[in-house]
Write a structure and sequence with these properties.
Layout: E1 18-20, H1 21-35, E2 53-55, H2 56-66, H3 74-83, H4 89-112, E3 120-121, E4 138-139, H5 141-165, H6 170-173, H7 178-185, H8 195-203, H9 206-223
Antiparallel strand pairs: 1-2, 3-4
Helix pairs in contact: 3-4, 3-5, 4-5, 5-9
């Protein structure tokens, strides 16, 4: 709104840009609705000089007194932990486990394509009684089990993010907060997205589409062998 960064040591300046109380009240009402916080909000409290406007120094002073908190639900906490691992220790641990699982999965796939009885179950030779011309070498059961475990881990992680995205206020979870700013200062009334719309917004993100494409082939191969 003011286009400035907050500064606790900043002194009041008469030349500071001023925001009309009407616009400021609209922004604050939208913010309170988003964070689901309902304090006794008195817009007149911010107009300390009765000028019908709010300056940056007045806003910073009142904001420090208010000290708003964002109450995240359990689904939102799960989503933020998985979607933005830099925000907490658990998120970083999950991110490391995902990286290890990716390396193991790729390594298992490469090893399973190597020739030799150590890596593949061989087919009967031409002169054996059990010879089958349609037989193809298959990976060892241990390699298959490791790959399956990795895919299950990827599926659970993606599934948790997909399900919790329906209950997550993306405007608050977004790291850059650009969506939140647009919702607060827009002249138009922006409706709160439905749960279905939130899931669709999550699904069409390029990074999430890549995650989905990485695990779908395993399920297709399991349903349609060969």
């Amino acid at each position: 709104t003011w286009g400035k960064e907050p500064s606790p040591s900043r002194q009041e300046d008469e030349d500071d840009p001023q925001v009309p109380l009407v616009e400021f009240q609209r922004i604050m009402v939208r913010l309170l609705r988003l964070v689901q916080d309902n304090p006794k909000f008195d817009v007149q409290k911010y107009d300390r000089h009765s000028r019908g406007t709010v300056g940056w120094f007045e806003f910073c002073t009142a904001w420090k007194e208010w000290d708003p908190k964002i109450a995240l639900s359990i689904p939102e906490r799960i989503f933020v932990t998985l979607e933005d691992p830099d925000r907490c220790l658990i998120g970083r641990l999950v991110s490391i486990l995902l990286f290890v699982a990716i390396v193991v999965s790729v390594g298992t796939f490469v090893v399973s394509t190597l020739p030799g009885e150590a890596y593949q179950v061989p087919c009967p030779l031409l002169h054996d009684s059990a010879y089958d011309p349609s037989c193809r070498p298959t990976p060892r059961p241990l390699l298959v089990e490791i790959d399956t475990a990795c895919v299950m881990f990827f599926s659970i992680e993606y599934g948790l993010r997909l399900i919790t995205s329906a209950f997550t206020r993306m405007e608050l979870a977004e790291k850059e907060k650009q969506l939140l700013l647009n919702m607060l200062v827009s002249e138009e009334v922006l409706p709160t997205p439905s749960r279905l719309r939130r899931v669709l917004q999550f699904t069409v993100l390029p990074s999430n589409m890549l995650d989905l494409c990485a695990i779908i082939p395993w399920y297709i191969e399991s349903i349609i062998p060969g």
